[in-house]
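Renewal narrative, Specific Aim 1. Our central claim is that a sequence can be written position by position from structural information alone. The example that follows is taken directly from our test logs and has not been curated for this report. It begins with the structure tokens describing the chain, in the order in which they were read.
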């Protein structure tokens, strides 16, 4: 019994009062955000191919595991910049649901970043614990880094938001939980703003195609 109480206390401590409040407010925040830039969806209807192959990119996780994006040929890849103290943090649960449903055909990778309003202040270990304990995340979480156009911008986000690399899109993340979808052939097909839920019909349609 003591062990269970201890585990419960540990879980509660992983989420602050602010984080619990934002989790409850998420549906309202998303609804309001859909009316502005955070609800934007940008598509690549002509399937313009990248100038630099997506499959040349690699990512090293905190564990030392190297993700070679060429291993994802034949699979869709969803790349999302995330944060623990954001009104959209509740999307971690939705992304995990998406992962469990489409894991065989879709790879999701989270990229924690402190670029927007200092909403990701924790280190990699704290972020990983937060994601696992509060949202049961089992998809890869990259080391914390920069996702906006700066000198230290992560290479994958430089590719995602540079027309000269991906072939057509210059749109950088508008806020935390911006989502970029790459298809089975390494073509960037969509940008979904933070207010676009990973579980809404329009999004699921693109995942299931």
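The sequence written for that structure reads:
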């Amino acid at each position: 019994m003591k062990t269970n109480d201890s585990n419960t206390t540990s879980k509660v401590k992983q989420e602050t009062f602010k984080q619990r409040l934002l989790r409850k407010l998420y549906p309202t925040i998303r609804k309001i955000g859909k009316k502005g830039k955070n609800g934007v969806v940008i598509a690549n209807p002509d399937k313009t191919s990248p100038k630099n192959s997506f499959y040349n990119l690699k990512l090293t996780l905190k564990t030392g595991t190297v993700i070679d994006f060429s291993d994802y040929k034949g699979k869709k890849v969803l790349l999302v910049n995330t944060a623990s103290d954001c009104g959209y943090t509740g999307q971690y649960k939705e992304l995990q649901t998406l992962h469990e449903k489409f894991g065989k055909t879709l790879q999701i990778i989270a990229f924690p970043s402190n670029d927007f309003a200092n909403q990701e202040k924790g280190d990699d270990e704290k972020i990983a614990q937060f994601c696992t304990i509060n949202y049961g995340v089992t998809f890869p979480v990259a080391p914390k880094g920069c996702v906006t156009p700066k000198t230290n911008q992560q290479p994958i986000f430089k590719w995602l938001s540079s027309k000269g690399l991906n072939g057509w899109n210059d749109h950088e993340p508008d806020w935390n939980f911006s989502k970029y979808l790459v298809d089975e052939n390494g073509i960037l097909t969509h940008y979904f703003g933070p207010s676009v839920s990973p579980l809404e019909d329009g999004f699921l349609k693109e995942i299931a195609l």
